[in-house]
Amino acid sequence: MGRPVRVAVMGLGQRGLQHLKSLWSLRDEGVVQIVGLADAFVENLAPGKIAQYVPDYAPEGIATDASVHVVMRDAAPDALFVAIPPGVHAGEVVAAAEAGVHLMVEKPMSLFLDEAVDMERAIEDSGAIATAGFQQRYSPRNEAVRDFLADKRVVMVNVVHNGALENHSIKHTPTDRLDGPRNRVWTASMEWSGASVVEAGIHQVDLMRYWCGDIEWVEANYAHRDASDIEDGGDNPYAYRVAYGFEGGAIGSLIMSRLRKAYYNDGYQGITWTHGHVKFEGRDAVAYYYEGPYPPEQRPSAEQLRHVLPAAAGEDPTTGLARAFVEAVATGSDAGLRSTFAGSMNSLSAVLGANISDHLGGERVYLADLTRADRYAQFRRRPGPAAA
Questions:
Q1: How many Å apart are CA 100 and CA 87, to the nearest integer?
Q2: Structurally, how many domains does the chain consist of?
Q3: How far is it between the farthest Cα atoms of the chain?
Q4: pLDDT of 387 higher than 80
């Protein structure tokens, strides 16, 4: 690798600070130079605040401004990390791509498919290298599952996640000053997050795709929150049941809940192929299957069927994502990325399509139709004057 890749970060909230921390470690290795930071709320750019989340942070030589356009002009980055709430994009990704800046865009890339398509088109037209913030693909355990399933026919994948609404953390965007949630927990708000399936469930959906391939259709039904149970704008549904059909023939389900006053989380992930199952047990991915003369003389025990999948040692997945992206920029090739921006559009369509399906009474929505069918046009565009 030649000179360090010049990187700027837009959005110094929870996720942006995590990205900056990873980039700072790559800076210490000499592969990255942090040249600019942008945040619409200048208090988030205070060195003392950043240093609370990024040890050894030093502001010298780093351009900072409320406007990412000013930072791109003054700092001339090679690459930009965009980590802002998904509903507040205002053309920054398109502008960066048109300026020849490579992009890492935090998920979900937008709450509006038309806007995301505009981003995708600008990236493609510019030739920019771009990825989305699906760091879980860089987990050695998840990679081990993908490798194990590579020569198998997956027929089903199921994810269950029960969560407490109170688990949502206070964010750094002052939504209380933007007619949003007074407690700044925008991830609990339907308007700001697009629903828990979109803001959080997109990670599980993207892992399904990592293991099983692209999604063809979605059907969904939600149990919406009672008006009397909404506090501080936290109106995301109680529960979600989402069914997916994969292009390769597998079926899948994502079941989520976000309850108030429960204070309990649990979950389950399971992948089924034609002759066995993969489960997650603690830190291990475990495959259950029989190998031996068939039929066996007696029923095998669970221990005889249990195979822990070997996973290589690896770094923090967020750092793994940053490293892969920076190397892609440095080499001019996206071959080492585990998802490109264009490829990530299937994950975004799958969760936004779930919202549409629920709105339409649970009807099956084919993702290929979402970006072009007239009947979905009202769901694709940003509402209000901003859509003009």
A1: 24
A2: 2
A3: 74
A4: no
d(CA 56, CA 288): 45
The confidence score (pLDDT) of residue 1 equals 55
pTM score of the predicted model: 0.95
What pLDDT does residue 177 have?
83
Question: Residue 160 belongs to what domain range?
Answer: 144-315+347-376
Q: What are the distances in angstroms from CA 76 to CA 16, 126, 174, 208?
A: 19, 17, 28, 37
CATH code assigned at 69: 3.40.50.720
Return the closest-CA partner of residue 348 out of 118, 160, 35.
118
pLDDT in tens, 271-320: 999 999 999 999 999 999 999 999 999 999 999 999 999 999 989 999 99
Output the CA angle 271-197-341, nearest 5 degrees: 80
In a domain, 360, yes or no: yes
Element (H, E) at 82: strand 79-82
Give the pLDDT of residue 127.
98
